[in-house]
Protein: Probable acyl-CoA dehydrogenase FadE10
Organism: Streptomyces ficellus
Amino acid sequence: MSGPHHKPKVSEREARQVAEAAREQDWRKPSFAKELFLGRFRLDLIHPHPMPATEQAQRGEEFLAKLRDFCETKIDGALIEREARIPDAVIDGLKEIGALGMKIDTKYGGLGLTQVYYNKALALVGSVSPAVGALLSAHQSIGLPQPLKQFGTPEQKETYLPRLARTDISAFLLTEPDVGSDPARLATTAVPDGDDYVIDGVKLWTTNGVVADLMVVMARVPKFEGHKGGITAFIVEAGSEGVTVENRNAFMGLRGLENGVTRFHQVRVPAANRIGPEGAGLKIALTTLNTGRLSLPAMCVGAGKWCLKIAREWSSVREQWGKPVAAHEAVGAKISFIAATTFALEAVVDLSSQMADEDRNDIRIEAALAKLYGSEMAWLIADELVQIRGGRGYETAESLAARGERAVPAEQLLRDLRINRIFEGSTEIMHLLIAREAVDAHLAVAGDIIDPDKTLGDKAKAGAQAGVFYARWLPKLVAGPGQLPRAYADFHPAGHADLATHLRYVERTSRKLARSTFYAMSRWQGRMETKQGFLGRIVDIGAELFAMSAACVRAELLRTTEAHGREAYQLADVFCRQSRIRVEELFGRLWSNTDDLDRKVVKGVLSGTYSWLEDGIIDPSGDGPWIADATPGPTTRENVHRPIR
């Protein structure tokens, strides 16, 4: 049996096996995005646009009104930025209006909001203070309420959900100083001892960890007689003996974020606090993230809306060369990009959220695409706003106010948004995660052909099965509705922009994407997983096609339900035209790129071949190890845990 000081040493293959075992492998429900990657444009899965039930919408709107009033009167975003802390009174107020329980069922004292209205609430809160948005999101999207809802026992739900709905803040603890997106090397242990587990280890970047009352902790249970072992999820009281918050971390942005380093030394946790069976921890974490990932793009939508408002107001009053800067094409193009992309981001988030609420479709790829696309595009939107504002965009809101101008925190937004490309799966990890799901159908039929551990007989059998699959599948990628001039005619009503042409493009291009993926599989076979540049571009194309589809479907929804349908069609049209240019560039870079040359340069950089290029500078970095020591043991630091009571 491995003790608490055992640090796992794993090969690349073992690490992949751990990740693969934790992946949700069955597809019991249809998936629009999965079909899209396979060259099948299933518009029927997203159109007509799903809608919330009247009672759900009414309950959601009532809470949004209450939350808006709270945000306008009780949250001072500038104060939080200045003092790098959310005032206790704000957190107490959020508890009072039920914001901690937005996603918790009403029978446990929560508000029971749908995913759609939960995301609208996060967009609203995040617009006044991204730090407050992050606190609520970390508590409910990935904190204890979600895994309890999906995997908790009735007793666990009765015990903890009422607390989480009204008084207790939760945190999710997976990352360690030496473990990021490779959980096979998880070093925190939970050793069985009678009716308890004893947890030892150090967790890094514990969002909400500094103020948490309850935590979900991922720890490795050793495998021995009577214990399956493996990475397991535990509910831990933050005030337990042996739990120490050793540091409150400070970041480029999100200055009010209560994020820390948490040490566990001989922390006793009852077996009743284990969520799910031993070894199910990673699966619980990944399943929680499937819909939990929608919270980040929701706040990105809020950021896009604010950027559009500031760009509109500023660009109409700031004059250069005798006319407002908005009238200059160089600035106008940026404003058009911000407006069109914000429309598409909201379309992606609302569609994915409503599908999550209906539970008719499997949205794991849609949620991942929303997170990937939202975080990348919101960063570009904020960057363009800073550029439109010029020197004022780089100046802090406090400095602007001090010299008598409107305190517009554009540079703060840029800093606050930057983490979204890293949080809850970096863009690079999201590319690989989505690519793995996108090529799942190929691996299901051809995986044994490229598996080095399979015998020649297994490979021959797999080859025959693959031959049958591709003989049926490949001919379907040759032609489709996208080549018919009148296909999707409902999306070109009189007096509106023509969105049918974009849907035909999406249909044609999804088949082209599937053909490209098949060609790459045949060309590289087992080496496909190392072609991360290629896979990233495949995923980015799929993200653009999903966003185009969502934008068109949303425009049609607004045409039939709102007064500004014509304007929505115009925004969707412009977005799709911009998106198509990006897609064509990505297709060109699938086969014409510097990936092979880049690998050679990287080898040279790491071997010191180009170290002469670093001459002439002074490194201002301090001393110390690149990765802090995380050896288990008693703490030597002061406990900076400060529960809000």
Strands lie at 170-173, 189-193, 196-207, 214-221, 230-237, 243-248, 259-270, 274-275, 319-320, 323-324. The domain at 171-282 is CATH 2.40.110.10 (Butyryl-CoA Dehydrogenase, subunit A; domain 2).
